[in-house]
Protein 1
Amino acid sequence: MNQIRKYMGLVWIALALVAGYYLIVSQAIPKFESPKPEDRIPAIIYAFILTPIIVGGLLVFGYYALIGEYDIYEDPDHHLHIKED
Amino acid sequence: MSFQTEKKGLAGIIAASSVGTLIEWYDFYIFGSLAVIISTKFFPAGNQTLALLSTLATFAAGFVVRPFGALFFGRLGDLIGRKYTFLLTLVLMGLSTFLIGCIPSYESIGIFAPILVLVLRLLQGLALGGEYGGAATYVAEHSPAERRGFWTSWIQTTATIGLFVSLLVIISVKGSMSESAFGDWGWRVPFWISIIMVGISIVIRMRMSESPLFAKAKAEGKTSVNPLKESFGHKLNFKFVLLALFGATMGQGVVWYTGQFYALSFIQNTLSVDVSQASRLIMWSLLFGTPFFVFFGWLSDRIGRKWIMMLGMLVAILLYRPIYTAMYNAGSVKLKTEITAKTTVEVNTAADPKIAGDSIRTTTTHKFYEDGTTYREINKLHLHADPSKADAAKDVNVTRTVNLDSYSFWQLVLWVFVQVIFVTMVYGPIAAFLVEMFPTRIRYTSMSLPYHIGNGIFGGLLPAIALFLTTKASQANEAAAKLGEALPYDKPYLEGLWYPIILGAVSLIIGVLYINGEDNRTED
C-alpha cells in the first residue's frame, strides 16, 4: 500500500499542473481580457491566490507522497501511524 | 468528576461556545441573504466603480479574507489563549454587522457608503476566519477524547443553524411590515438584532475559563513562540496541514456548499422558484437535517472519523447528478402540464421616468398548471423614442417566478434534505478530526487554515465555477441549435455539478489513501 501512496504522488503533481493550466487559461486570462472592470477581481483572485494555493499545495503534497512522507507503518502494538520524523 | 457533573459542565461550555459561533454565522449570512437589497442601497447599477466594489465585497470577504483571519487569529489564539481570541472575533463580527445596518445609503453619502460596507464586510470575513478554529479547539480541549466527536459536533451545527436563523429573522421582519417599509429601512433590522445577540454572548463568554489544555501548556511553558513558523515552516507539521486540506476539508467544503448554497441557487435560478418559497424550502431541509450533525459526531467516536467523512463524500459525488435531475423533474415548469385556458396576458405601456420620450412596455403572463403550480413572467421592453438607440441585449428584462404546488415543494425539501445528510456526514466529525491532527501549542493556527481554505476557497468558489460551467454548456447548446446540429449537452443545468464531483473525488482518493483512520497525533 505504501508503494501505491508513493506512486500516486506523481498523479498529484500532474494534477497540480493541469489545475494550474485550467485556472490560468480558462478562468483568469478570459477575465483579465473582459471589458468589464469588475471581472478583474476574480481574475486577480484566480491568478494570484487560488492558483498558488492549489498548484503549490498539490505539488508539495505530491512531492511529500513521492518521498514517502505519508507512508503508514504499524508499531509493535499493531497501531498504524504516519511517519513523524 | 462524575460523568453527570462532567456532562453538565461540558454542556454549559458547548452552549456558550456554540451560541457565539452561531451568531457569527448569522451575521455572515444575513449579508448574503440580503445581497439584492444591499446592492440597490449601496451598489446601484450603472456605475462601474460600484460594480467593482460590489464584486470585491462578495469575493474578497466571501473567501479570500477568511484564511487570513484564520492565520491572524489562529496565531493569536496559540499565543495568548483561546478564550480572549474568540471573544475578540465575536466583538469584531458583532460590531461590523451592527454598523453595516447603520450606514446611510449611497444616495445620502455617495461613494463613502459602498466603501464602508466593503471595509466592514472584510472585517466580518476576518472575524469568521478566526472564530471557528477557536470555538472548535476550545470545545475539543474541554472534551474527553472518547467523546470529542459528540461534543464538537454541536459547534458543527452552528453554521447550519446560523443560516436557518438568518432566513427566519429576515422572513419574520419582512412579514411584520409592508414591502416598501422593508425596502426603506426594515432590511436594517436583522443587522441591528445582531448587537443584542452578540452582547448576550459576550457576557456568557466572559464568564468562561481558558481551555484546560492550553492553560496547562502555558503554565508549563510549552506554548509556541512562533505558531506560524511551527505550523507551516516545518515539514513535520506542514505535511499534516496539506493532508487535512486535500484529504478532508476540500471535499467537505464542496459537499457543504453544494448541499446548502448551490441547492438554493439551483432552486431560485434554474427552477425560478419564488425567493420566499425557496427560503422556506431550505429551512425545512435544514431543520430536519441538523440533528444528524450530532448523530455523525457521536458515531465518529465509536467507529472513527475517517470513514464517515469518506462515505459522505462518496455518496455525494455518486448521487449529485441523479438528485439534481430529480429536483429538476420535480420543480421545472417545462415538465408540467399547463392549463392553457387559464393563461392570462396583460400588457401595459408607461412613460420611462428616467428618459423623456422613452417608454416601458410591461407584459405580464400568468400560467397555471394541473398540479397547482403557478408561473408569472414579467417582460419589460424598453422602447426608445430614438430607434437608433435600440439595443436588443439591454432593452429586454425578463423575471420569472414559480410558485410550486405542495407536492413538488415537499419533493424538493426531500432532495435538499438528502444533500444536507451528506453535509452532516462530512461536516459533523471534522472539528474533532482536525483538532486531533495537531498538537495543542499550534492547534488553533494549524487547523484554522486548512478549514478556511477548504470551505472559504474551494467551497466559496463553487457558485462562480458552477455558473461558468452551466453557462458554457447552455451557450454550446444554443450555438448548436442555431446551426441545426445535435445538442452537445443533454442536461446543461447539471454541468455545474462537475466542480464538486471532481474536487470531492480527488479529496476522497487522497483521504482514503493517506489519512490514517486509526491514529491521531494529539499529544494530550
Protein 2
Amino acid sequence: MRLFLLSILFISCQISISQNCSNTITGKVIDQHDGTILVDAKVTILETQQFVLTNFEGEFSISNLCNKTYTFEVYHAFCDSKTYKLEVSGDTYKIFRLEHHLEELNEIILEGKSVEIKSNTTLENKISKEDLEHNSANSLGDVLNNISGVSSLNTGNTIVKPIINGLHSSRVVVMNDGLRMEDQDWGSEHAPNLDVNAIDNITVIKGASALQYSGNAIGGIIITENSKTPVKDSLYGKTIVTGATNGRGGTVTSQLTKSFKSGWYGKAQGSIKRFGDFNAPDYNLSNTGVFERSLSLRAGVNKFNSGIEAYYSLYKVETGILRASHLGGAEDQVRAINSAQPLYIDDFTYNIDAPYQDVTHHIARIKAFKKFNDIGTLNFQYGYQQNNRLEFDVRRGDDKDKASLDLKLDTHTLLLDLDSKISSTTKLKLGLTGQYQTNFADPNTGVRRLIPDYDKYNFGAYAILDKKINNQLLFEIGARFDYTYLNALKFYRTSFWESRDYDTTFQDIVIDGDFGDQVLANPKLSFYNPSATVGLNYKFNNGYKLLFNYALSSRAPNPSELFSEGLHHSASRIEYGDLQFDSETSSKVSITLLRENDNFSFSINPYANFINNFIVIEPIGISQTIRGNFQIWEYRQTNARLLGVDINSGFKLTDYFQLKNQFSLVKGKDTSQDEALINMPAASTKNTIVYNNKKLNNLNLALESEYVFRQNEYPNNNFEVYIAETETTEIVDVSTPPSAYHLLNFNSSVDFKLNNKTSLTVGFDVSNIFNKSYRNYLNRTRYYADELGRNFLINLKINY
Amino acid sequence: MKNFKFITITILSLFLATSCSDDDDNITIPVPVNEEELITTVNVTLTPNGGGTAITFQMQDLDGDGPNNPVFTYPDDLTNAVLDAGVTYNGEIQLLNETEDPAEDITEEVEEEDDEHQFFYTASSSLDLTTEYANFDGDNNPLGTEFTVTTGAASTGTLTFTLRHEPTKPNTGLSDAGGETDVEVAFSIEIQ
C-alpha cells in the first residue's frame, strides 16, 4: 500500500511543473511531546500543491523549490493539521513538530495503530481494508491465501483453515483484535470462527516472534484489527453487497460508526452470507452450501490519558459438507476414490443437510488503557468467549436430527501489559496473561465424546525489549513463559485402555465406578513452555533492509492429540491420541532481505524451522469393524524440519502498469524417519499484471495467473483392502497428490463519487476463467470431487 | 489514579481467583455415553425350507471402533457354517447393539426406514449358492433383512452381507447402489 502511495506521489510530483528553481527541502515530522517520528504524515506546499508523505523514519523531501517563502501544511491522520511559513533559501532542513495527542488517544485499540509494528525483526504481511472489502464474500482463510507462504487446508471450499509456512491448526494462533480466538482450532476441519467483514485489516507473522501474543505459535500468528475511530463529531458507515454465480448467493454487510469530539464512540456491524451448492466445472457439489451471520457492537471512550472499550460479537455459521465425502469404511473409500465423479450428485439446492456443521461463537470483551508519564502505557483486557460446535452426521432412526458432536468451549482471558519507553532508543514491553477454559461435551448426542470434558488453566508472562543501536540497526530480544494445567475427565473404551497398557501406567488416575465397557480417567497434566526470540533489523542506505530473527517456541499438546480415541467420521479413519505426549519445541530462523522502491521492490524470505517432539498423525494399520475396515491413524512425536522460502516482488512497467510476482516453497521432513511430512503445501507461484489509473475513477484491472505445482514429496500411506464383490484386493490411494494446475483469474474495481459524503466502488471478478477442472492436494475432499468451476462475482461498496 | 488502583486490585484479584480454583477435587462425574447407533452384533439365521434345524451364525464386535477385532461364532464351534447341498433356506438377519442393556434391536430401525436401507449378499465365485430378497420396502424395492439362500453343489467360500444406508433405489447391485456402508460382514460357508 505504501509503495502504491509512493508511486502515486511519484507521478504527481512529475506533473507539478517548476520554474528554474532547484532547492530541496528535507526534514522530519515528529511528535511535539516525546519526539516520536510520525510516519505517513502529509507535507503539502500550498503554493505549488506539491505534497509528500513521510517515510518510516518520519522523513520527507520536496525538490524543485525556489528561493522564496512557502506555506507548508503538515497533516497526520486524526491530528488537526498545522501550517508553517518557511523561507527556503538553498537546500533547507526543517523539523516539523505536530500536536500528536489526538492519535495517541486511540491507543484504546491496543494494537490499532495502522503503523504499529508487531515484530520488528520478521517480515509482516498485511491485508488492507480495501482487500478485505473486495473479499467480503470470502472466508478468512481465502483472504489469507493471497499472501505468499500462506496456504490453506480445506474441507470443500467453505471450511478453509490457514496454513503458515506449512503448519496449521493449533500451531497457528488467531488474535482477533487483541484476543486470542479459542474456537476448537485443533480440528483440521474447523475453520477460524471469524467474519472478514467484522475486521479492518490483517497482519500475518510467519513464526512465533511476536511473543506478546503467544509463545506457542510455531506456525505463525494471524492478527486481525479494527480501525481507530476518529475523535470528532461524525457519523459514517458503509454497506457492501456481493453476488456470485457459483453457489448462486452472496453477502450483505453493513456498518455504522458514531463518534463524538468528547472521545465517546460507538460502532455496529452486521453481515449475512448465504450460498447454495457450489459447482465444479462438470457437476454440482451437493450439500456444500453455507449460511453465515455475524454481528458486532462496540462502544467506548478515549481520553488523553485513559480509555475504555466494551465489545460484543456473535458469529454463527452453518456449513454443508460434500455429501459424497461421507463414507463408511475402506470399501466405501475405494469406490469413492476410484470413481471419476462424486458418488452423490443431486440438483442444486440452498438446503444444507447432513453432514454439516453449525458453529456459534460469542465474544464479549472489555479493554482499557491508562497512560503514566513516568512508566508508560498500561493496558488491560478481559475477554469471554463461548464456542458451541455442533456437527451433524448422516444418522439413523431417532437420532436423525441430533448432532453427533456437541462441544461447548468457554474461555475467560485476562491480559495486562505495560508498554514503556526506557529511553529514546529503547522500548520495553511487559505482560501477564491468565486464561481459564472449560470444555463441555454434551452426552446427549448418543455418540462417544470425541473431546472429553476438561478444565484448562494457563498463565503466561513475557518481556520484550527493543533497542535502536543507531539509525540503521535495531535489536530486539524477548522471552516468555507459559504454564498450562489441564484437568480432564475422559471415558476410554476398556479395550483401548488395556491395549495401551494404560491400566498399569495410569491406574492412579482411574475413577472408581461402573461404566460398563468404559473406564473413566482423570488425567491432570501440567506443561511448562518457555519461548524466546532475538532479532536484528538493519537498514542499508539504498533502500535495502535485512531482517534476521530466531524464535524458540513451544506448544503443549492439544486435547485432540492427547485424547483422540475412536472413529473420526469425516476422515473415515480411526484416530488415537496419546496421554503421554510432551510439548513440541520449535527453533525457527528466518531471514528477510527487502527492497522498498517505486520501480522495483521485492522481499525474499528464506527460513528453517526445526521442531522437536513434533506431533504428527499417521497410519499404523487397519481395524476390522462391523462396518468394514478402517485405517487406524495414530498421533506420534518425532523430529521435523521445515525449510522454505517466500518471495514477493513488484515491478513498475509504466505509470499505469505494474507486474507482481509471488512464489513460495516449503519442504517438510520427518527427520527421525527420513520421510516427507504429510500435507505440505506444494510450491506455487502467482503472477499478476495490474493496470491502475487514479485519474480514471481509480480504475483497477488485474489479471492473475496462479500456478500450483504437484507435491512430489509425500509419505505413502496407501493400504490394501479386499473387495468381496470383485474378489480382488484393491489399493486405497489416500496419498498420491493430484496434478499441478494453472488458473487464470481477473479482478477489477472502479470508484464513483455520488455526492460529497457518498462514494460507490464497483468490483467485478472472474475466477477460474477457463472453467478448469482440478484438485487441490490440501483439500480433504480432493479424493471425491473437483474444485470450483468458473465464478463471476460483483461487489458493490457504498461509503456514506 | 483512583481508577488505576481500582483496576489493579480488580486484575490482581481476578488472577488470584482463577489461580485458587484449580485445586478443587470435587469432581462431577460425567455421564458415560453409550453409542446409540452402534451395531455390535450381526446374527444370521438360516432355516431349511420345509423343516429342519435352523443354522445360526454370528459376528460380534462389542468394542465397536475399538482395537478388539470382531469375533465370529458358527454352530458346533466350527470355523464355518455348514449347509446342505441342493437346499433352499429362509434367511433372516438380526442386528443388535449389545452395549445397551437390554440389547437394542437395530433391525427394527432398519425395517422402519426400509426406503433408506438395503442389504446386499455377495457370494464368492467358489461358493455355489444363489440368494434372493424376501422382503421389500413400500416402493417394492428390496430391503433384504429377510432372504432366501439356495445351495448348489458341495463347495466352500464366503458370503458377504452388506448393509447400505441411503443407497440409490432401485439399483442393480452394490456397484451402483451408492450410499454408505453400515454393515459389511463376510461369513465362511461350506456346502456339503
